[in-house]
């Protein structure tokens, strides 16, 4: 008998099928056992009716322990009471492996306990739902960029220089020279854009930042497009179109998961381009007028400041034209001002903070040399990057979207650590 996945049961209504599954939970009365089954693709209830099966089978069903693996044979039935819409009328159970003393039970557990058991915690309904949403964000990302003429390029993870300096990078030895784990693939993606026009990367990045906030990870995944002949305003349009596309894809394809997470989807349904924009100058004024007297022009925003601005708009908002002194060397100065750059951060609502940072890049050779000097960076290490400005340089722009922050926001997860399978935190390298 062909094995079927739970996600495909709707195609087999009324049929008797075989399912490989684990027992997530169970309850029983004297005459019926209800088995909550999962197979990775979804969850379904298996119903074992005492009067319809052998005594041995019913005894087996009642004795099953949490996370025991098995093969189940049963008939697919309609079940209008569940959000999934189907259940399995169980006819046979073949135990594969009996789980003993499974540590994560339906009771409440502390965060550290759950993190120590992350390899098992992933099996829970909530974590399963978040991972499925993460997968949909990834799928929609590839779809969006492929449909819009981008080529995927994979930048190196080991680098000899850094886009934003080396103070927050992991340093390692590369034979007889120093190397760093990448904090961004951006510089390499700029080179790729000069070859392929519109490119994007999707890979792991690393920040040796000693932060314990709910927004930070040591290792996380970034989506980094770069576009030749694209200037600042066009860059913002691509960003808002991309985020809107991803949100609508999740709403369409992850309804069960959002429901399982009890996510208020009304807060996501209205998120479509265009997004509101506020300049850094006006953001400072707004904050000063709304109880944030501590923030002054020239200072970077913290989490409370970003949250206050985003909550005012109730949807993602661009904060544009930051002071040149608090942004990296590669950002193009404003054409009419020498104190701000053509950049923007996209701030998610509901306290999730910055999900995108982007800018138009410096395309003038002499200006880029000057900016490197101002930031105390070695021009030799960036010689290849400088050369891009000598060989047919063009205006170009790009951005980076943090996958985990975006997934946490869409799913409503309390902490970004739930948005990645195995989080790396300041004091956590296990499991």
Automatic annotation (TrEMBL):
Keyword set includes Ligase: yes
Keyword Membrane (UniProt): no
Assigned GO CC terms: cytoplasm
Domain Aminoacyl-transfer RNA synthetases class-II family profile, first and last residues per copy: 131-431
Subcellular location, principal: cytoplasm
InterPro entries: Aa-tRNA-synt_II, aa-tRNA-synth_II, aa-tRNA-synth_II/BPL/LPL, Asn-tRNA-ligase, Asp/Asn-tRNA-synth_IIb, NA-bd_OB-fold, NA-bd_OB_tRNA
CDD domains: AsnRS_cyto_like_N (cd04323), AsxRS_core (cd00776)
Intracellular or extracellular location(s): Cytoplasm
EC numbers, comma separated: 6.1.1.22
GO terms, biological process: asparaginyl-tRNA aminoacylation
Alphabetical list of Gene3D superfamilies matching this protein: Bira Bifunctional Protein, Domain 2 (3.30.930.10), Nucleic acid-binding proteins (2.40.50.140)
GO MF annotation terms: asparagine-tRNA ligase activity; ATP binding; catalytic activity, acting on a protein; nucleic acid binding; transferase activity
Pfam families attached to this UniProt entry: tRNA-synt_2, tRNA_anti-codon
Catalytic activity: tRNA(Asn) + L-asparagine + ATP = L-asparaginyl-tRNA(Asn) + AMP + diphosphate + H(+)
Keyword field: Aminoacyl-tRNA synthetase, ATP-binding, Cytoplasm, Ligase, Nucleotide-binding, Protein biosynthesis
NCBIfam families referenced in this protein's UniProt entry, alphabetically: asnS, PRK03932.1, PRK05159.1
Quaternary structure and partners: Homodimer.
Family statement drawn from the similarity comment of this UniProt entry: Belongs to the class-II aminoacyl-tRNA synthetase family.
Full protein name: Asparagine--tRNA ligase
